[in-house]
Design a protein that fits this description.
By secondary structure, the protein is α/β, with parallel strands linked by helices. The longest helix has 21 residues. The protein is globular and about 60 Å long.
């Protein structure tokens, strides 16, 4: 098919040309004498993306799932009690991972379309007088449902009862796209990945650990080899890695951090909110709603569009791909077929986001959805036009 495929899923995301160019280099010696001149500043600058001064960054050749394993295996022990909540496919996968590690998982089942149940967490933590709960887990952005959660609220619940549990945050589809504050929110472990807000191909699991979390590794009895922090620390402190690193991806990560810092994180977050708001304006014009039940749950990185009864949202995705070379995301598990998803994170601007809205409209019209062709596009255009600011003064 002539032309390009248009990728609008919540990860992997589009890779900017600057990052592609940064990765398009000859293979290099990962033990070169001057490698620390590259790696050490990269670690320090990544801390700024997580908004931490004292946290420690680990970079693994892995996806976000590898980052999860690293965070859990280096801080907890078999049988430890942890508090978790499932409200989508990916938060449930985190629960499954912890169960497989032999942790005592107290998992709260939440309606899909809502986020972390902060009030319920507060009740459970307040009742845990003996501090049996060792870890509290919160998914900041659930990509299956387009739901964002209140991480600051979870920290307040912990502080209100002076609970010492570690706070784990899944930031795979939020870090570098949605406001995240490691130090201010008292987060102990945050896991992200290269293929979302960092605008890279899949392949890097990025973990940020607090000093409190780092201290826990000495008492953790879960097995670890590839994801062992001790091995990382010994070599990272010298500017190297305990095994062969994916240098091309690391060169791309350096450029990603440069791009994020040039735009400014607050501007990055504002841009994501504006683009997401345009998508939500289109959804409303179609006479539909997001899967997220309330505005407070709206994600700025992905919108799951609830389709009318009697229609199959996954068929919209298949049709858009087959006929218009547009990649949207299917709905998964409990809501399979009830929605389709539009990813709007990473390298994204006004005219880019009009593409999936246009293509989705065409696919839905082909499938006899009760929508007016052009309605969503017009609504998004009007929102973007009214909120536009000049780039050059």
């Amino acid at each position: 098919m002539p032309g390009r495929n248009f990728l609008f899923i919540p990860g992997p995301t589009n890779v900017p040309r600057r990052i592609q160019n940064a990765m398009s280099v000859e293979q290099e010696d990962m033990r070169a004498m001057d490698l620390p001149d590259f790696t050490k500043p990269l670690y320090e600058d990544l801390k700024k993306i997580f908004k931490t001064k004292n946290g420690r960054i680990f970079i693994f050749p892995a996806s976000g799932t590898g980052g999860w394993e690293s965070a859990v295996s280096n801080t907890l022990s078999s049988g430890d009690k942890v508090l978790m909540s499932g409200f989508g496919h990916f938060s449930n996968l985190w629960i499954d991972l912890c169960q497989r590690w032999g942790l005592d998982v107290q998992a709260i089942e939440v309606d899909w379309g809502e986020g972390v149940p902060v009030e319920k967490y507060a009740e459970i933590l307040a009742a845990d007088k003996n501090h049996e709960i060792k870890g509290v887990f919160a998914t900041q952005n659930e990509t299956a449902t387009g739901v964002a959660s209140d991480i600051a609220g979870v920290r307040k619940a912990l502080d209100a009862c002076n609970h010492p549990a570690l706070l784990f945050v899944d930031g795979v589809s939020s870090v570098a796209s949605i406001d995240f504050r490691m130090d201010e929110w008292g987060v102990d472990l945050c896991v992200s990945g290269s293929q979302k807000g960092f605008m890279l191909p899949t392949g890097l699991g990025i973990v940020c650990a607090s000093e409190k979390a780092l201290a826990c590794r000495e008492n953790s009895n879960l097995p670890k080899t590839f994801f062992d922090w001790n091995d990382q620390i010994k070599t990272n402190d010298l500017g190297y890695f305990p095994y062969t690193p994916p240098m091309n991806l690391l060169r791309g990560l350096r450029e990603s951090v440069n791009i994020l810092n040039e735009e400014g994180l607050e501007n990055v977050f504002a841009r994501h909110n504006r683009i997401a708001s345009a998508v939500r304006a289109a959804v409303s014009a179609w006479g539909m709603t997001p899967i997220a039940k309330e505005e407070k749950w709206y994600s700025d990185t992905v919108t799951a569009v609830k389709v009318p009864e009697g229609f199959d949202g996954n068929e919209v995705v298949r049709h858009a791909y087959n006929y218009y070379n547009l990649a949207l995301s299917i709905s998964l598990a409990k809501i399979a077929g009830q929605a389709f998803r539009i990813g709007h994170l990473g390298d994204m601007n006004e005219l880019m986001i009009l593409t999936p809205i246009t293509g989705a409209e065409m696919a839905m019209k082909d499938l006899n959805y009760p929508i007016e062709l052009g309605s969503g596009v017009a609504a998004a255009q009007e929102y973007l036009r009214k909120t536009a600011t000049p780039k050059i003064k």
